[in-house]
């Protein structure tokens, strides 16, 4: 697992992000962290690496139970990030959704080129033209 600085180098507010990751994040802190990454991370590769690290941190949070499901949904020139915890036949939103200022196709291409960046997430069979889905056991 990477260090807090792994995500911070891709943003404009590294000190805030390192501080948020190094403590045991609450749901509100994780939501703020995800918003910071969505707003500040640059360029596409930086957004992906930062998002992947946030997801790895999220998997450590004791309040996430079940399987973590990450949905990346096309929104024109942006991509919405939805995070869910799946429980049997149902699921609940793990954090509020955020929007990345990047086209889904760019994310898809980057993820296929470097799938190891997203380990232990794996692309789900639910992939569609307008959505990418990743799952990881918690």
Helix content: 25-40%
**What is the residue-averaged pLDDT?**
75
Summed up, the domain count is 1
Which residue ranges are poorly predicted, with pLDDT under 50 across at least 5 consecutive positions?
A: 1-6
Secondary-structure-derived class: alpha+beta
Largest sheet: 5 strands, antiparallel
* Anisotropy-based shape: globular
Enumerate how many helices there are, as a single number: 5
Computed Rg: 14 Å
String of helices and strands: HHHHEEEHEE
Strand order of the largest sheet: 3-2-1-5-4
Blueprint of the fold:
Layout lengths: L3 H5 L5 H9 L4 H14 L3 H17 L6 E9 L2 E10 L2 E11 L3 H10 L8 E2 L7 E7 L1
Antiparallel strand pairs: 1-2, 1-5, 2-3, 4-5
Description of the structure:
- By secondary structure, this protein is α+β, with helices and mostly antiparallel strands.
- It has one domain (4-137).
- It is built from five helices and five strands.
- It has helices at residues 4-8, 14-22, 27-40, 44-60, 104-113, and strands at 67-75, 78-87, 90-100, 122-123, 131-137.
- It has a five-stranded antiparallel beta sheet.
- Strand 2 (78-87) and strand 3 (90-100) form a beta hairpin.
- Helix 3 (27-40) runs antiparallel to helix 4.
- The two termini are 14 Å apart.
């Amino acid at each position: 697992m990477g260090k807090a600085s792994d995500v911070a180098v891709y943003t404009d507010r590294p000190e805030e992000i390192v501080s948020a990751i190094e403590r045991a994040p609450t749901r509100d802190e994780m939501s703020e962290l995800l918003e910071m990454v969505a707003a500040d991370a640059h360029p596409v590769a930086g957004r992906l690496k930062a998002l992947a690290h946030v997801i790895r941190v999220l998997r450590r949070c004791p309040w996430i139970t079940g399987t973590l499901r990450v949905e990346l949904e096309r929104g024109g020139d942006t991509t919405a990030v939805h995070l869910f915890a799946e429980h049997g036949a149902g699921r609940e939103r793990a954090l509020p959704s955020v929007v990345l200022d990047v086209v889904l196709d760019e994310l898809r291409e980057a993820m296929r080129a470097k799938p190891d960046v997203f380990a232990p997430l794996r692309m789900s069979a639910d992939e569609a033209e307008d959505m990418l889905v990743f799952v990881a056991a918690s």
